Amino acid sequence: MDLAYLWFFIVGFLFVGYFVLDGFDFGVGMSLPFLGKDDISRRQIINTIGPVWDLNETWIIVAGACLFAAFPEWYATLFSGFYLPLLLILLALILRGVSFEYRHQRDSLRWKRGFDRMIVIGSAVPALLWGVAVANIVQGVPLDADHEFTGSLLTLLNPYGLLGGLTTLLLFFTHGVYFVALKTDGQVAADAQRLAGRAGLLTIVVAATFLTWTIGMAFAQERPLAGITVIFAAVAAALLIGSWVANVRGREGWAFGFGAFTIVAAVLALWFALFPYVMPSTLDMATNSLTIDNASSTDYTLTIMSWAALVFLPLVLAYQGWTYWIFRKRVSRSRIEKAAASVPH
């Protein structure tokens, strides 16, 4: 296989990892107003991702670095054309990270509630805007002959892009609530299971609409792997329904696992729908589009990157797996209450 095509799928793998891992972080953050009925329950919810959220977030840094090195033309066009949405995502991620670190610094309910609101905002904004960005990449944006984006922010806020944003928002929310049900006990876990049941039904409807639209677009634009897109979209739909059924039956682990693989299949469906483009042009698909071939680095660069990935990627995966194994236990309410009682006031 040509190295450029290999790296197209490696970059896709990195985005899959990011959306699965930081996706449930976003969902946990967005669930605070619904599940956090008191400070103890809010601490219980936040502590489910406390040891891992920053590790999950590094996937987007690696994905961006690989995109820059493997596909510099794609990186340049994407980050210049999508500058404002990506800046908003960055600011939201900073806001969320600061809130996690500063929330517990003062024993003031007003102080904590302020940072809780910022956690919700810092989780919802990226969950929405990542979907808008990816949907527009797949659909195509106005690129001129120099591969420069000629639209504006309003160009990106088209019906398909907004539907993509709503899909990721709901998908990540449901995914995160599954994680809360899996990692907590008591009232929080019971409330999370009920909330996931209601949110899951809405997610199924919205995601099915978005994937159906994506399939129709892929065939209308004669994308060469549209047939594979159908397969992965069908798998994603089946897994999403399976996650909802597992949740209704009280199988938290299966619900979360099916939810994670739903995101994997959905992102792969979009990636195959995009192939062989990396940014199609709506002005002139044939001549103005960025493709895997005309956006990639030299073979020498991709060869060096391939050897580096072969060495370091397994180490990163092993370390992440070890981290999740160490922090595999549920976050119990009694432990939070005991810790709160031991703190001098």
Automatic annotation (TrEMBL):
GO terms for biological process: aerobic electron transport chain. It is a multi-pass membrane protein. Pfam families: Cyt_bd_oxida_II. One of its GO terms (cellular component) is cytochrome complex. Keywords: Cell membrane, Electron transport, Heme, Iron, Membrane, Metal-binding, Transmembrane, Transmembrane helix, Transport. The keyword Metal-binding applies. It comes from the Bacteria. It is found in: Cell membrane. One of its GO terms (molecular function) is electron transfer activity. The chain crosses the membrane at residues 6-32, 77-98, 119-139, 159-181, 201-219, 225-246, 253-275, 304-327. InterPro entries: Cyt-d_oxidase_su2. Belongs to the cytochrome ubiquinol oxidase subunit 2 family. This is Cytochrome bd-I ubiquinol oxidase subunit 2 apoprotein. It comes from Microbacterium pygmaeum.
